[in-house]
Amino acid sequence: MKKKMGLVLSLLVGLSFPSLATTNELPEVPSNRLVGYGVGDAVADFKLKNVDGKMVSLKDFDTAKGFIVVFISNHCPFSKSYEDRVIDIDKKYAPQGYPVIAINPNDPEAYEEDSFVNMQARAKEKGYTYPYLTDNSQVVTKAFGAMRTPHAFVLNKENGKIIVHYIGAIDDNPQDPFNVTKHYVTDAVNSLLLGKPVVTPTTKAIGCAIKWKT
Of 94, 117, 180, 205, which has the fewest beta carbons less than 10 angstroms from its beta carbon? Predict the structure, then answer.
């Protein structure tokens, strides 16, 4: 009888709190967000406002071979820790045909630091060498499936399309740039420049969760 009662209680607990067993398996995205692009998918062009007030789209870069799209934000300490690294990546790879395009996906109502005015100030202060775009509607962010800042996507132009070849973290050490052992983004670009497949096409993005508009 005691065994039967214990079994019943266990079942009731499982039914009442199912999330306890599956919390780590749930995606960290809101229910109304799109899944986003996967490796091998073609990216649709977009047009977003840059910190200089001009609208920027992928088609503006007619001589580019591809793009390094990075979703970043002003307030996030992970984004801040990667700023100098992203600038260095752009300086190295933009001349080789793979410019960085940074996009701030956050709702500025949630973080004042991510307002357009503060984006302009940050870009000027740090001397960003790449466009820093605001995705006010968050439509582009949802299309990409970005979940955190930073979240990187390496794209390549192929037969009139722009194809995703890498999604995830910039490298394997957000805290210490001097102890990075795996350079995911630059390794992906180097492979594309050599016409080789990307060895590690996906990794887990580590950073601050994007604040979605309600």
Answer: 117
Question: Tens of pLDDT along 150-196?
Answer: 999 999 999 999 999 999 999 999 999 999 999 999 999 999 999 99
pLDDT tens-place string over residues 88-138:
999 999 999 999 999 999 999 999 999 999 999 999 999 999 999 999 999
The reported pTM is 0.84
- Site of tokens 């701030």: 104
Burial category of 29 from C-beta neighbours within 10 Å (exposed 0-12, middle 13-18, buried 19 and up): middle
